[in-house]
């Protein structure tokens, strides 16, 4: 019996060698895949109409977690309970900077109760952008908010658009100035790769620049024909009264636009990112918002990223 057992073990070992370790590769590949969440602003109308039901549909699509853009008057503890019941990780929350400045303690308490790991500055108004009269003040405001978050066991992230890539008198991008003047233990990145590319930079290369400081990466695709005119932003209720975006610019589901999504995902692995977040500010191509995020998930599955 011992001889037979030894022979079987030898055969098994030879099989593993002959396969080049392929028997381990599926498990290794699965371990390398980053979890994928969705920014719920993408389906804000659905969230407002049926908060829990939309979370259930998001989970059924294959998403692992969610990034909030408001709780729609739901109790934070209840939201946490729904996430646990459904099996979604409450990753993070976009919270307007004005709300953080007004009552950061409440913001922290609410999203700790939800179970979030990160709180995100999603957007800043014109006077706080690079070159604006309050830009330097905004950097210090973010430093103070980051300190509060750190003390509470949360991490503050900054979500960029294209205007942070305006160069300062020093020749430095405003976004780089922010990250070089607020330490990494108080502020980390949430790079929106749509706006990185729209600004003329290589999204994968820019992500790698912030290796070790990019826990959450926004995957967003878009199409652009001709010159951009007007306001391209869709922003948690902050673009009311602004000029509507030109039809030349269109947000798209992943794989339907200009982005090299696989290169961004590879860079996210190399940068040590923990989450990929799908975001589509506005629906397109005749699809409803829920269909858009479903299409993005199907694309991620088709390239083996999910």
Description of the structure:
This protein is α/β, with parallel strands linked by helices and 306 residues long. The protein has one domain (36-302): Alpha-Beta Barrel (TIM Barrel). The protein is built from 12 helices and 10 strands. The chain has helices at 2-18, 25-32, 44-49, 51-61, 76-86, 97-114, 135-151, 174-181, 193-198, 203-209, 261-271, 289-302; strands spanning 36-39, 65-68, 89-94, 118-121, 155-159, 188-192, 216-219, 221-224, 249-252, 275-278. The chain has an 8-stranded parallel barrel, surrounded by 6 helices. Strands 8-9 form a two-stranded antiparallel sheet. Helix 7 links the parallel strand 4 (118-121) and strand 5. The chain is globular, with a radius of gyration of 22 Å. It starts with a helix and ends with a helix. Residues 1-30 and 240-246 have low confidence and may be disordered.
